[in-house]
Design goal:
About 60% of the residues lie in helices and about 5% in strands. By secondary structure, it is mainly alpha-helical. The protein has one domain (about 5-270). The protein has a 3-stranded antiparallel β-sheet.
Length: about 270
C-alpha cells in the first residue's frame, strides 16, 4: 500500500508539473527554478575548462606537450622528469584550487548564488519578504570555506596523491614519452567527471540549505522531501521522499544526505 507521505509527495509533484527545470545534462530538477540548471552548466563549464588548462600546464612542465604542440620529451626514447617538475605541478594544482574556489572564485560564487536562489524560492513559496543579501552574508564564509576545502581535497587526491605519486612511484618508468602523455591525459580526463559531480552536487545542496534556512526563519516546522519524479530517481531518494514529512531541524538535505548528482529538493509543509 502506498503511504500517505508518498501520496502527498506525488500530489506535490503534480502541483509542480510543467514547472520543473531541466538540468544541464538533460535531466530534470525537482525545484522549478530555471536559474539552477544554468548555474550548474556555467559552474561545470568553468571547473572542467580550468582543469584542462591545469592538465596542459602539467604536460608542458614534463615536456609532453599539450595536445596542440609536441613537447621536448616526446622525441626522446625514454620519459624523464625532475623533482622540480613535480614540485611545480603541485604548485600549479594549488593555484587551480585558489582560482576556482577562493572567496571570489567562480565555483564559490555559483554555490553562493544557488543558496540565494533557495532562500528566494522558499520566500516565494511562503509569499514572504526575502532580505536575501543579509541572509546570504551570514552564511558566506561557511559556504566559501566548504567550497575551497572540497576543491583542495579533490585536487590533492587526483594530482598529488594520484598522478604525482604514480610518477615518483615508478609507474611510468621505461615508457615511451608518447605513452606517458597518453596515460596522463587519461588520468586528467578521469578527473573531469569528479569535478562535474562536485559542482552539480554542491549547487543542489546549497539551494536546499538556502530553502531550509528560510523555512526556519519563517517558523515552518515540517518539510517534504520531493524528487524529480522520473525513472532516474534513485532508490535512496525514493525512500527519503516516502518518509516525509521531516522536522525542519533534522530534514535530509539533497546531495549531503542522499548521494552525489542529486536533483531533489525540499518543500515546506504549511498547515491548512
Amino acid at each position: 500500500m502506498i503511504s500517505e507521505a508518498a501520496l502527498r509527495a506525488a500530489w506535490l509533484r503534480g502541483v509542480r508539473a510543467g514547472m520543473k527545470a531541466p538540468a544541464s545534462a538533460g535531466e530534470t530538477w525537482a525545484e522549478p527554478d530555471p536559474a539552477l540548471p544554468r548555474l550548474e552548466a556555467r559552474a561545470i563549464a568553468y571547473i572542467v575548462g580550468r582543469w584542462r588548462r591545469l592538465r596542459d600546464e602539467c604536460l608542458e612542465l614534463l615536456g609532453l606537450g599539450t595536445g596542440q604542440s609536441v613537447g621536448k620529451a616526446v622525441v626522446a626514447e625514454r620519459f624523464a622528469f625532475t623533482g622540480a617538475d613535480l614540485v611545480e605541478m603541485i604548485s600549479r594544482g594549488e593555484q587551480f584550487s585558489a582560482e576556482a574556489a577562493g572567496p571570489n572564485g567562480p565555483l564559490v560564487r555559483a554555490f553562493l548564488a544557488a543558496w540565494a536562489r533557495g532562500w528566494d524560492n522558499a520566500g516565494a513559496e511562503l509569499n514572504r519578504e526575502t532580505e536575501t543579501a543579509r541572509a546570504l552574508e551570514a552564511v558566506r564564509a561557511a559556504i566559501a570555506n566548504r567550497g575551497l576545502e572540497l576543491v583542495r581535497n579533490g585536487t590533492v587526491r587526483t594530482l598529488r596523491d594520484g598522478i604525482v605519486a604514480e610518477l615518483t612511484g615508478g609507474t611510468y618508468d621505461g615508457m615511451n614519452p608518447l605513452q606517458v602523455a597518453q596515460r596522463l591525459r587519461q588520468r586528467f580526463e578521469a578527473g573531469e567527471y569528479n569535478w562535474e559531480r562536485l559542482a552539480r552536487t554542491e549547487i543542489a545542496q546549497a539551494q536546499s540549505e538556502g530553502k531550509l534556512q528560510h523555512y526556519r526563519s519563517a517558523g515552518i516546522e515540517q518539510v517534504d522531501y520531493v524528487t524529480a519524479g522520473d525513472e532516474l530517481v534513485s532508490t535512496i531518494c525514493q525512500a527519503l521522499e516516502a518518509a516525509s514529512p521531516y522536522p525542519v531541524a533534522t530534514a535530509p538535505v539533497p546531495g549531503r544526505d542522499s548521494h552525489p548528482n542529486c536533483r531533489c529538493t525540499i518543500v515546506a509543509r504549511v498547515p491548512d
